[in-house]
Design goal:
The relative contact order is 0.10. The protein is of the alpha/beta class and 293 residues long. It contains seven helices and eleven strands. The strands form two sheets. It has a seven-stranded mixed beta sheet with strand order 1-7-6-2-3-4-5, with no helix packed on it. The protein has three domains: 65 residues, SH3 type barrels, CATH 2.30.30; 117 residues, Rossmann fold (3-Layer(aba) Sandwich); 47 residues, no CATH class.
Length: 293
């Protein structure tokens, strides 16, 4: 039946531009487009970010190159397109993000869906709360998968007594991380005595890092420093560090907040010095090694 009144002028997409609506198009290298405003026609040679915006560079048939802001305002074969970042680059970023997500903070491959094991008999002991929190932040996921618990010693002055109390054995190993384990230090003498303790010696591994405090195992650049400052003898190390950084340090609350800032600068193993990384990994390997018959 013929509609003698004609079609509805408002029917359909009457707002559509004459050339059609713009569609998204990835700015892959080699794609030939025309910039509507200038009439420049060229093939995409690269896309980069400059000044917070994406810029697409087009090379014309004479080899000249011009840059344009990525987005709407281009034509392909007369049809409008909105250029988007190339899929190859976007996919590479996505792959990198997925790879990062598949790693724990320690750099180990994350075990998807794994539940924490029931705690094993073996333990890793550290000197204090800050050491324990740092180990948990970086190695916590690994330790939960292995069922290894980290405990605090509150110092190593009586390390031999702590070993006797724990009574390590072949099925119940004991790993110990000691601060400031350098030749001639008090800690070195304490550790040498503990390592000779019978009948536990072969089931105990005591290792240490050279830093006065575990704070110092964080790379100084993460806190805006070229190096950790040398604190004069007679001055509390933590107080001296906070003073150098301009942080409050009059009370224990101030020092606790300072540690929060130090710990907050650590996102993964890449933020720590190798002298600590190697020792913690050594302890984990020791306490999780298969028991030999």
């Amino acid at each position: 039946m013929v509609d003698r009144y004609g079609g509805d002028v408002l029917g359909g997409d009457w707002r559509a531009p004459r050339r059609g609506r713009s569609v998204e198009l990835a700015a892959e290298p080699g794609t030939v487009v025309e910039d509507v405003e200038t009439g420049w026609v060229g093939a995409v040679v690269r896309v980069e970010k400059a000044g917070g915006i994406h810029v697409v560079h087009l090379e014309d048939r004479r080899g000249r190159t011009r840059g344009f802001r990525l987005g709407p305002g281009f034509l392909v074969d007369g049809s409008p397109v909105t250029l988007t970042p190339p899929r190859v680059a976007a996919q590479a970023r996505l792959d990198a993000a997925r790879a990062a997500a598949s790693r724990t903070a320690s750099g180990s491959v994350a075990v998807a869906g794994a539940r924490a094991k029931v705690a094993s008999g073996s333990r890793i002991f550290v000197e204090g709360k800050h050491d324990a929190e740092l180990v948990e932040k970086v190695w916590g996921a690994d330790l939960r998968v292995e069922g290894v618990v980290v405990e605090m010693l509150d110092g190593v002055d009586d390390l031999a007594g702590a070993i006797r109390d724990f009574a390590p054995s072949r099925e119940r190993r004991m790993g110990v991380l000691v601060d400031h384990l350098v030749p001639g230090s008090k800690e070195t003498r304490v550790v040498e005595e503990a390592r000779r303790l019978r009948p536990f010696a072969e089931h105990v591994l005591v290792v240490g890092h050279p830093y006065v405090d575990v704070w110092q195992s964080v790379k100084p650049g993460r806190l805006g420093m070229d190096a950790w400052p040398v604190v004069p003898r007679g001055t509390s190390w933590k107080h001296g560090i906070c003073a150098h950084l301009g942080w409050p340090h009059a009370t224990q609350t101030d020092l606790a907040m300072a540690w929060r800032r130090v710990l907050g600068s650590v996102g993964s193993w890449t933020d720590l010095e190798p002298e600590l990384l190697g020792r913690v990994e050594e302890l984990i390997d020791f306490v999780t090694a298969p028991t030999r018959g």
